[in-house]
């Protein structure tokens, strides 16, 4: 994927990711997660909002931890509004998880929005 992106072959990189996901054994959950994360990063940088959303929905069917990963990807790429929306969706889906709320509050604290952060603790 990395090589294909270096030579601006974005569609080829997508094909490689999807092929890899089909061939990795289902027991290799961490390896599949790594490919999903790479694919989300690819869609975030080179794709559209729709392609990112479709990729996320596909990834979420296979791995629950991808929800927080997408929020982190959006945060790192300074798409703060979308990251906040993703944290809210994740909080609704996994409301019992302290990790979700801790990371969501951390997201607000990093932006000096302490009042928002405290409201989610």
Residue-averaged pLDDT: 90
Question: Describe the biggest sheet?
Answer: none
How far from one another are the termini? 39 Å
What is the percent of helical residues? Answer: over 70%
As for the number of domains, it is 2
Shape: globular
**What gyration radius follows from the Cα positions, in whole Å?**
15 Å
Number of strands: 0
List low-confidence stretches: none
Provide a count of the helices.
8
**β-sheet strand percentage:** under 5%
Order of SSEs? HHHHHHHH
Quick structural overview:
By secondary structure, the protein is an all-alpha fold. The chain has 8 helices and no strands.
Structural summary, described in words:
There is one protein chain. The chain is an all-alpha fold and 121 residues long. It folds into 2 domains: 1-63; 80-121, no CATH class. 79% of the residues lie in helices and 0% in strands. It is globular.
Set out the fold topology.
Layout: H1 2-6, H2 10-23, H3 29-46, H4 49-62, H5 66-76, H6 80-93, H7 98-110, H8 114-119
InterPro entries: Rrp5, TPR-like_helical_dom_sf
Name its key features.
2 domains, 121 residues, mainly alpha
């Amino acid at each position: 994927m990395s090589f294909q992106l270096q030579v601006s072959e974005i569609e080829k990189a997508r094909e490689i990711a999807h092929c890899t996901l089909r061939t990795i054994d289902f027991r290799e959950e961490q390896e599949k997660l790594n490919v999903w994360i790479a694919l989300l990063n690819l869609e975030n940088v080179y794709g559209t909002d729709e392609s990112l959303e479709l990729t996320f929905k596909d990834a979420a069917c296979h791995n629950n931890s991808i929800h927080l990963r997408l929020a982190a990807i959006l945060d790192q790429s300074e798409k703060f509004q979308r990251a906040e929306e993703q944290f809210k969706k994740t909080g609704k889906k996994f409301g019992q998880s302290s990790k979700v709320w801790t990371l969501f509050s951390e997201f607000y604290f990093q932006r000096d929005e302490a009042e928002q952060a405290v409201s989610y603790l």
